[in-house]
Amino acid sequence: MNYPFDLLYRVKKPASYIGSEYNLVKKNPEGKVKIALAFPDTYEVGMSNLGFSIIYDIINSREDSLAERLFAPWVDMEGLLRERKIPLLTLESGRSVKEFDILAFSISYELNYSNILTILDLCGLSILSSEREGLPLVIAGGQCTTHPSPIIPFIDCFAIGDGEEVINEIIDVFKEWKLNSRDKKELLLSLSKIDGVYVPGISKTVKRRIIKDLDKAPYPTKPLVPNTEVIHDRAVVEIMRGCTRGCRFCEAGFLYRPVRERSLETIKRLSTEILASTGYEEIGFLSLSASDYSNLEGLARYIKESLIPSYISVSIPSLRIDTISDEFYEAIGEIKRGLTFAPEAGTQRLRDVINKNITEEDIFRTIDIVSREGW
Question: First vs last Cα of the chain: how many Å apart?
Fold first, then answer.
């Protein structure tokens, strides 16, 4: 147990701070690049984040590195940590972040910015990057790093775009630097030469990293199973990344372009392995617009013929009103867990303004179809 029992006894959700989840990875730190992965929100939110899980798996799959997690504590835990002058500790080993080589933030929302400062402070690190000497190096990735200006004063460097490839290159550069130097400026200069890494004060331009083939991209097949209820407590398979729709209010629809898909065979393999390794009885097929998946009918057949007979519940978010066929609803009709569609606006004029490109006819046609199928 990482924190004193009498402290955990006083917080609302002690299971968020004890680690020891099923499929947990614990490694001997000797001779390894030690990375503390920080999600600047609560355990319940961070453990539901797929990108965080992917990076954790990639780092720990390497023999020469390890990743341990920490999350922003809820206000009750934060108050007790400050009162007792106890630093924020990683869940896997209970070590202080000061013992790590790299502190890596995954930033999904602008509202998380203030929690970055909270974590830095609770870890006993200077908030401003200009006041930090030596290690740990503080880096950040995730959706919000494509517009890093608001948090440049606090972060040493940023990974821009998909992180599956760039994280390995960052580790390789760090290892080489640690063997031959201790000058942090040399490290930052070396990192700035990696495509997709932006170092404030050094980089002039940066090119967003893009994974071209999702079938070849690493994906966690033994994800951690949380100790307590989290926002999305189920197995997850990302079926596609990116979106062509261009809805004017959707930042992600632009940041994750171009559209890339996983093949149905890869989806089946990942689903089988993840369900077997976790014991979950529900799986979600994720994307920004799942109904735009090119082999949606094949996915529906897989759900009907393999998952439903195995008593696996299925969640398919982000369904478009204007792209679903009668055959799809018939194929998944046995799920009956509910469907959510978003007209996005109350009038056709407003839907046109935000580039939603659906009509009232599309809405009522879909309502008619799902009603006939018994939803």
Answer: 46
Query: Using 50, 70 and 90 to split pLDDT, how confident is the model at 249?
Result: confident
Alpha helices (runs of H) in the chain, residue ranges in sequence order: 5-8, 43-46, 50-61, 75-84, 113-122, 163-180, 184-191, 252-255, 264-278, 296-302, 326-331, 348-353, 360-372
* Neighbouring-strand partners of residue 282: 313
Q: Does one domain contain both 271 and 174?
A: no
294 inside domain: yes
The pTM (predicted TM-score) of the whole model is 0.92
Could you tell me which of 119, 130, 101, 97 has the C-alpha nearest to residue 41? 119
Mean pLDDT of 209-219: 95
DSSP string, 337-367: S-------SSSHHHHHHTT----HHHHHHHH
- Identify whether 229 is part of a domain: no
Which residues span the domain enclosing 337? 235-372
On whether both 119 and 11 belong to a single domain, the answer is yes
Strand partners, 367: none
Q: Is the pLDDT of residue 330 over 90?
A: no
